[in-house]
Amino acid sequence: MKVAIVHDTVVDSDSLDARDVLVQADAVAGALLRLGHDVSRISCSLDLAGIQQTLQDLKVDRVFNLVESIGGQGRLIHLLPFFLDALPLPYTGAPAEAMLLTSNKTLAKRWMAAADIPTPAWIGPWPGSDGIVQGGNDNKRTWIVKSVWEHASIGLGPQSLIFDATADAVFPGLAERAASLGGACFAEAFVAGREFNLSLLAGENGPTVLPPAEIIFDGYSEAMPRIVDYRAKWDETAFEYHHTPRRFVFPPSDSDLLESLNAIALRCWHHFGLAGYARVDFRVDGNGNPFVLEINANPCIAPDAGFAAALEYAGLSFDDAVRRILTDAC
């Protein structure tokens, strides 16, 4: 089969989080070649006519979609799937509609709330809302300000937390923060507690939930927020980068919680119409109540990322995962 890996356009001056897509493309290309496919690579831009011509010239059968942003804009992540639908040409991962719904974090939270999937209360987005709390009350609490569209913890750090505040105090400040968060942001009720990632992989009999991973905030002081921020993901010189390992082994006392996380992850897959692979990120409060933070419809599949770690712990090879993702393309 002729498979084109389509990914973000990357230049040498781009940040580590942007250049990571090339690591993913290398890994996927290697797996596809070992599986016997004819592989090409295309950098995605706003020149859709040029991309269409390249796909036709290469006589591509399927696209392996690794696009996370176009022109540096995460809000355009769904553009390629919609474009491929129009050709039409099969592609891996979530359908266009699901990519749009999950990539806009506040839109995803509205969909989760409508299906009674637990997600923290929120304010926003800015621009585009009146600042009323959604999915909860307006009691004073700690909030965390996030980008609506950008992923990879872009813009996330200790400065993202706002303590002991109501919506009236939080919402006016979103306008000032939006520029550093991709142009649109929102505030989410901060869930103090544990953090989990559950990866899912398509299969012949439906999705498989891979072993749950918990992020451990090792050696964090009381003053340090227990969040997986940009430094924890990308800054190799940072304390946070070296002190947020993941674990896959849990005591029997966590069995009910893990079953609940597994069930909610599957509900997210079916409710949003996901395909290929995905990751659902959770926080669990001090009473053991899980909340979905976000649904990542095209999580990082670099060899050092959480998805690959979950595959390894499950005893699945990366090549087999790529095969399953490609088979599920539509």
TrEMBL record:
InterPro entries: ATP-grasp, ATP_grasp_subdomain_1, Dala_Dala_lig_C
SUPFAM superfamilies in the record: Glutathione synthetase ATP-binding domain-like (SSF56059)
Stored PROSITE patterns: ATP_GRASP
Gene3D superfamilies in the record: ATP-grasp fold, A domain, ATP-grasp fold, B domain
Record bears the keyword Transit peptide: no
Top-level taxonomic group: Bacteria
ATP-grasp domain location: 109-327
GO MF: ATP binding; D-alanine-D-alanine ligase activity; metal ion binding
Keywords recorded for this protein, A-Z: ATP-binding, Ligase, Nucleotide-binding
Homology family: Belongs to the D-alanine--D-alanine ligase family.
Protein name: D-alanine--D-alanine ligase
Source species of the chain: Desulfosarcina ovata subsp. sediminis
